Amino acid sequence: MSAAPASSPAPGSPLLLTLLQARTYVALILVFGFFAIMAPNFLSVANSVIVAKHAALTAFLAIGMTFVIITGGIDLSVGSTVGLCSMVSGWLILYGIDLGTVGTMQFNTLEITLIVMCVGVFVGFVNGILITKLNVAPFIATLGTLYIARGAALLSSGGRTFPNLSGNPDYGSASFPAIGAGTFLGLPVQIWMLIAVGLVAAYIAKRTPLGRHIYAVGGNERGAALSGVKVNRVKLFVYMFSGFCAAIVGLIIASQLQAAHPATGETFELNAIAAAVLGGTSLSGGRGKIGGTIVGAFVISILSDGLVMMSVSSFWQTVIKGLVIVAAVVIDQAQSKLQARVALQQEAALGR
Length: 352
Hints:
By secondary structure, this protein is mainly alpha-helical.
């Protein structure tokens, strides 16, 4: 008597697994098709540009968040880092740095960009140190820096907006608005920036030892450490990279609006997490793809903008986003269980 039926793959399991793995693309097709039919002017060129710009902002944060989540962590501070970096850029343009009796140091656009990126990286560095050296749980560490960064942003202006960030030609900062509003070869500058950051992140993830170490830490941190992976260095990198991505978003928003407000970036971390998870990144760590995350960012952006175009209440929009996050996590758990089951069935089949 043969026991083959007990270990045979369930009918349709490989097909279902394929559909679960491709859920991001299925979701993109569904939301795009739905709003193309239901929302007026959704397919217009002007709206497509707006959706792409919004998706780029979410994608930057989600790319950094993907690396963090793959290692088994979380970064709740990215939204506040966006606000802080936006305010720093505004301060540098309007006031420079007061050197006392020496005078005031003013900066050009490139210098402002580099300084703001350093601020974002520093916030990520603080997160990494808290997690790796002081053994603070990622959720608590980044929740703390969320409040610290938001408080610093508020203190920088007393809660007021920094307006008129058009730059000063005398100091070489007149090109600042081009970061968020400029175009190159017909595409917004921020889309080119997203392409560059996305390609670099994908290369790191797929082609470098650092990328392999990031996945190894998330898959089995203890095993990775025993195999020689510098776990703390890997974690420090991913949080610094997440801060770097948040700084880019802060720059783009301040440049686009030509104004900086300390509340900029509120709840952005939720969109970033949603895009990463929807893109196939596992909250348990060890799995995720940059390409899937970027597609997930477009799904979130299309969903948000489509609901606005349909005049759906902002309260319902929040509810729907929450349901999307929950659904993405449930589907991810289902995928993990199905993968494990299929793998066991395949091993059993080979064992016969």
